[in-house]
Amino acid sequence: MRSARDIALFANTLRQDVIRMLVQAKSGHTGGALGTADFFAAMYYAPILNYKPSRPKWIERDRFVLSNGHICPILYATLARVGVIPLEWLNRFRALNSPLQGHPNRLDTPGVEVSTGPLGQGIGAAVGMAMAARMDQSTRHVYCMVGDGEMQEGAVWEAIMLAGHQKLAGLTVFVDRNYLQIEGETEDIVGLDPLKNKFDAFNWDVMEVDGHSIPDILHASMWAKNNSRPTAIILDTIMGKNVSFMENDAYWHGNPPNEEQAARALVELEKIRKEI
Amino acid sequence: MKELPAATRDGFGDAMLALGKAREDIVVLCADVTESVRVKAFEKAYPKQFVATGIAEQNMIATSVGLALSGKTPFAVSYAAFNPGRNFDHIRVGVCYNQANVKIVGGHAGLMTGPDGATHQMLEDIALMRVLPHMTVLAPADYWDAYQLTEYAAHIKGPVYLRLGRAKVPRVHTKAYRFFPHQLDVLKPGKGAVILTTGSTAYRALEVARHSKLKQHNISVVHCPVIKPLPEIQIVRLAKKHSHIFTLEEHQMAGGFGSAVIESLVRHRVTTPITQFGIQDTFGESGEHEDLWGKYGFGQLHLVQQIKTLFR
Lengths: 276, 312
Prior knowledge:
The structure holds 2 protein chains of 2 kinds.
Chain A: H1 4-25, H2 31-35, H3 37-45, E1 63-66, H4 72-81, H5 122-135, E2 142-147, H6 154-165, E3 171-177, E4 180-181, E5 184-185, H7 186-189, H8 195-201, E6 205-210, H9 214-225, E7 231-236, H10 259-275
Parallel strand pairs in A: 1-2, 2-3, 3-7, 6-7
Antiparallel strand pairs in A: 4-5
Helix pairs in contact in A: 1-3, 1-4, 1-10, 3-4, 3-9
Chain B: H1 8-22, E1 26-30, H2 40-45, E2 50-52, H3 57-68, E3 73-79, H4 88-97, E4 103-107, H5 125-130, E5 136-138, H6 143-155, E6 160-163, E7 185-188, E8 192-197, H7 202-209, E9 220-223, E10 226-228, H8 232-240, E11 242-252, H9 257-267, E12 274-279, H10 289-295, H11 300-308
């Protein structure tokens, strides 16, 4: 387990990578990528995930599925920084012929477990992966992230129902609960609260944690691994975290920074870095 | 046709039973219709290889994708109206874009679903599935065909759509029949005109060609079990050897098998005239199989009459 400081520095690196990637691409989803950087640092760098960067197809690896695939800039930055893909690829996000597609493509990018994009599909695939692990009597664990807006898709609840009924203990789902979607606040559009109660009602174990506290995320993940039912960890996050003018603004769901905004963002992120 | 009529769903169910025994990687998922799509026996025999998804066809496919990407060979089974009707996006992205080894089984396709009526009579599934990249589309004609196409689906790597029907149909093959993936299935050699059919209408095509009013014209009857990838060279050859092609399918005329044939012949600049028989841009309704076929243009006498006009 790496030190809290190292993990925090890693998260800061990821945020800077995201800004650079998106300003270069002139396209992409900034807010969710920044908001989940601490989670991704915990998952891949602490690491929570049991994997081998040089062997992305290792059969017994833990799986991580990004069901809200549009925040893939953070996944790509993470995969580059842990050595699964070349760092150089980050310069070609969303470009023609690029190995880093606008939404994750498992056939182009090592480390992407399943191509996602249309919301509500990845969590179902994660359920299937957890079932396969159980059929194989394997201890490998399946982790999945879903967006909170994504949970308006009925297919998500089909997956949750099935996993709960089947007591799929080898599955842990993290919710990026930033309370925002394209049109604004989730609770104004189609409210999800009380979300914790919903998971409980579907026979899952569930915990709410500060999505920017790496120790809390690590603690919750360990708790999840020991549960005998599928587990949901609701991450209380701020969209656009650590860039002051992006925080909590639905505009940044699907827009990239321009040159000037990127420069300001990087200054702020460097300042935070020095304080770590 | 000496053996008793049987449904393509029966051939499928029996093949799955054998596959489940032979291969541990085979997993069947079903959205609450095990008896009617003939996988109940599989569920009982191999419970560890069976997943009841409940009435949730979208998640059935999503879960199948996860299983396939973990090394399993899942067969996702429900009625064609819902599978692919309801979960097209999941099939498009989850299965095809991922090139996941998922076999989608669409039962109760066509009018022959019968009394349940239009909502359960899927007439658009071939069109939906054949436009997807990386998808193989199979439509068996009878029990023996269904049995072997099921085995074929399990054998090949990649997405497969298998179209099955509810009704018992006369067998057009004997047990000795062997399916070959890249060949057309000549049910009745002939010349002049050919009825080119797929799936459930194969037996009707034979009855029509053998009818007393058409017998003397020695019409060929050819079944095409693999709609995608379409055996284009074979179809072009067939077209060049005949003076008229009739396509016949239990599916909308728009976008189905007949459309695929027409596209192929135009692409190859083959000018053999074609007449399409299929559902004419309408939904079905409640009724019994043969009565519905009679009403919607698949009756034997009606087809004989239509074809006979060519020979005047």
